Amino acid sequence: MTYEELLTETALNDDRFIVMTAENRALVRNIPAKLGNRFIDTGITEQTMIGAAAGLALRGRIPVVHALASFLSMRAFEFIRTDAGIPKLPVKLSSFIPGFLSDGNGPTHQALEDIALMCGIPNMTVFAPADEDDLVKMLPQVWKHPNPSYVRINTRKTDYAHAPFEWGKAEVVSIGEDVTILTYGLLFEQALIAAEVLKSEGLSVGLINMRSLKPVDERAILEATRESRLTITLEDHFQTGGLYSIVATVLLKHGLTANVLPIALNERWFKPSLLPNVLQHEGFTGKQVAERILGYKTFFTQPKMAVPEFSE
Asked: Cα–Cα distance between 8 and 201 in angstroms, integer?
């Protein structure tokens, strides 16, 4: 099932759902004819769209709103925070072409701080599916949850069959004694490749899809740092405020430390190009990620860090 098919089916079966867009119909081209006046295009007015969505949510509707990730997370930030976050309204944000998925666009259209911004909003929930299969497995729960949500929409099709979505839980693909890769979104594809390369070098490799970033799976993070000698955070986001920061916060919350290597964009935007070229140029292909991890071989001969069992 595709994103558009799921949204169409959901809206047709529940008249509380309203589909909205700020003149960005790429994900919902066929919906207007099926929903009639329950489809609203506000034009290039992200702030107005969020304000209207909050008003609809206040009256019992569930608005699913669409816009480019950079403009949705930044241009409309105050409106999301004030109109949806503070009153805890079920405004559902579908964020189009986040991170490297904005491949051919320049810095103004690159959402590389969106997770940091959205995680900082009270009551907001934040999700980053690995591909379309992951996306359609999580959205029914996300849309029906009473809180506002921000989803990094990813409709790429892969051959990977994801585990059923559990609220606030990561998807543990494998457990490794030498290295564990924590990642989300588009880069899950490359993490799979990197894991195979590392395994071919004789390493024991763990891989976790951090599909839910807020609420985050603290148990998965703590168990990864306990099981492995080195933990990797791999993300198409600025290093500050993303998964690396989330992992650091979880560890400090529990009074712990760990060997953690961040692979992210460190206060820089990426060079626009076709997606394969972006990944190659920025050093985020699976092979390049594996090579970078192998550069830290000294960690794989050290004893594991003493991290206690997770407790609620």
From this structure: 46
For residue 85, the model assigns a pLDDT of 98
312 has a pLDDT exceeding 90: no
- Residues with Cβ within 8 Å of 283's Cβ and at least 6 positions away in sequence, in order, are 289, 292
Long-range contacts of residues 263-267, Cβ cutoff 8 Å, at least 24 apart = 263/232, 263/233, 263/234, 263/235, 263/289, 263/292, 264/233, 264/234, 264/235, 264/236, 264/237, 264/238, 264/239, 265/112, 265/236, 265/237, 265/238, 265/239, 266/238, 266/239, 267/238, 267/239, 267/240
Query: Residue 23 phi/psi, 5° resolution?
Result: 55, 45
Encoding tokens for residue 281? 């140029």
Give the separation between CA 192 and CA 171, rounded to whole angstroms: 13
Burial profile 70-106: b = 16 or more Cβ within 10 angstroms, e = fewer: bbbbbbbbebbbebbbeeebbbbbbbbbbbbbbbebe
Average pLDDT over residues 44-60: 97
Is 171-301 the same fold as 3-152? yes
Fold of 3-152: Rossmann fold (3.40.50)
pLDDT band at residue 300, thresholds of 50, 70 and 90? confident
In terms of CATH architecture, what is 171-301? 3-Layer(aba) Sandwich (3.40)
CB within 8 A of 56, min separation 6: which ones?
18, 63
Domain boundaries, the chain: 3-152, 171-301
**Residue % of the chain over a pLDDT of 90:** 94
Is the pTM value of this prediction over 0.85? yes
Condensed to tens digits (0 to 9), the pLDDT of residues 221-247 reads: 999 999 999 999 999 999 999 999 999
